[in-house]
Write a structure and sequence with these properties.
By secondary structure, the protein is mostly beta strands. The chain contains one helix and ten strands, in the order βββββββαβββ. The radius of gyration is 16 Å and the shape is globular. The mean pLDDT is 95.
Length: 156
Amino acid sequence: MPPIKPTLDLAFTAEVTVGAAIEAGTDAVGARRRIIPILGGMVRGPRLVGEVLSLGADWQVVEAGGLLTRLVARYAIRAADGTVINVVNRALRSGNPAVIARLAAGEPVDPALYYFRGAPQFEAPPGPHRWLSEHIFLCSGARAARAVMIDFYLVA
């Protein structure tokens, strides 16, 4: 029998408030390293409601030319019932030079004009949120001046 074709089901949306970028120098091949503090936020959706805790950061490597950013975001969500869930999200953001320049300037940009996708992993303790640790997720992001909107999809 053939494998089942995966589908994507929206689990929740996170609005993550971020601070100003901390420039952290360059790596061995000249890419810029940046750290973006995560200041908090909200989580709402059919499968999870809670808050993004005011801790963690987005560690970024911006390749030469600035058109591709590789990032690893590490933070935590406190679900409405008090459960703390750890998040590690590896993502890519890319686009043409004009779009990337507008994003860098903090201007609003239609998310259809750039690629911002990730593969988050969750660590949840036993209990009602354990399903997060037991499934694969994909996400799609949109960047604003001081926030990131992220839709998290369960791969069913």
